[in-house]
Design goal:
Helices cover about 50% and strands about 15% of the residues. With about 120 residues, it is α/β, with parallel strands linked by helices.
Length: about 120
């Protein structure tokens, strides 16, 4: 199980299609609180964040997850525009396990989903 905290329609569609083709179970929380609640109940192997999303509050949500003893071991990955150095630094400071440029994330998506579909926190 992988949570995908992404509200960008194009990336959601790409992730959903790639996950379906790879046979990976995905769920798409609708709010930051929903992300935390689903992380707690589903214990995903990975939570993917669009670090450019204002609606999903990715940096704040990563901080909450990493401060919570029940959630801190869940892997977090964010993707962001490669020129947004401040957001990349903020995500790393928040505790994101991986931060990728959007282009690298899109290129490696199938491998990322498959690699994390079999891992458990």
């Amino acid at each position: 199980m992988i949570l995908v905290a992404v509200d960008d329609f194009l990336f959601r569609s790409k992730i959903r299609t790639t996950g379906k083709q790879a046979g990976v179970e995905l769920t798409f929380p609708k709010t930051p609180d929903d992300t935390i609640e689903q992380a707690r109940s589903l214990k995903p192997s990975l939570v993917i964040f669009d670090l450019n999303s204002a609606k999903m509050e990715p940096i704040e949500t990563i901080v909450k997850m990493k401060q919570d003893p029940d959630l801190r071991k869940i892997r977090t990955m964010g993707f962001v525009s490669h020129v947004d150095a401040a957001r990349i630094q903020a995500a790393r400071a928040a505790g994101a396990d991986d931060v990728l440029a959007r282009s690298a994330f899109a290129t490696q998506l199938a491998e990322i989903l498959l690699a994390n579909a079999t891992e458990r926190s």
